[in-house]
Amino acid sequence: MIRTPHTTALACACAVAAALLSGCTSDSDPAPDRPSASDSETPGPTATSTTAPDKAVRLADRYRESGGAKDVYAILRGSGPGGAEQLTVWTRDKNEDAEVFDALKDSITGFLHEQGDPPEEDYVLDVFGPDGSLLHRLDARV
């Protein structure tokens, strides 16, 4: 094969494409001590509608008015797996960072405590991003 600038460029492009398609990056690996949302053994949806029920929007409005995260636009309380309480949160923030999630969890549960209606001891918290995909799942059942 004769080496020309075109064949060299094509070979480089193929190598870059193969590396990108392999998905081998350390940036996307979950922390070893924290499973990703998709690794959770807790049953539940891995995606939801980006439109939330009115009562969930109203609860999030009160949450934001009390100083909660401005990106949260809905918080729904309901029955979850095994009779545990299910907290479902819709956010416009697509950050999957564990520290951001921990701060959000503490902020929401703190707000519910302040409202005089704390989450049950056993609860499951799902956080869905702006496109409806599951960002975080916490199973706090004991």
What does this structure look like?
By secondary structure, the protein is of the alpha+beta class. The protein has a domain at 43-139: GMP Synthetase, Chain A, domain 3 (2-Layer Sandwich), CATH 3.30.300. Helices cover 33% and strands 19% of the residues. Strands 1-2-3-4 form a 4-stranded mixed β-sheet. The longest helix has 18 residues, at 5-22. It starts with a helix and ends with a strand. 20% of the residues are buried.
The radius of gyration is: 21 Å
CATH top level class name of one domain: Alpha Beta
What is the fold named in CATH at topology level of one domain?
GMP Synthetase, Chain A, domain 3
Q: Low-confidence parts lasting 5 or more residues at pLDDT below 50?
A: 6-43
- Named CATH architecture of one domain: 2-Layer Sandwich
Based on Cα principal axes, name the global outline: globular
Average pLDDT for all residues: 76
Please tally the helical runs, counting DSSP H or I stretches of 4 or more residues: 3
Short description, anyone?
This protein has helices at 5-22, 54-65, 98-114; strands at 72-79, 85-91, 123-128, 134-139. With 142 residues, it is an alpha+beta fold. The protein has a domain at 43-139: GMP Synthetase, Chain A, domain 3.
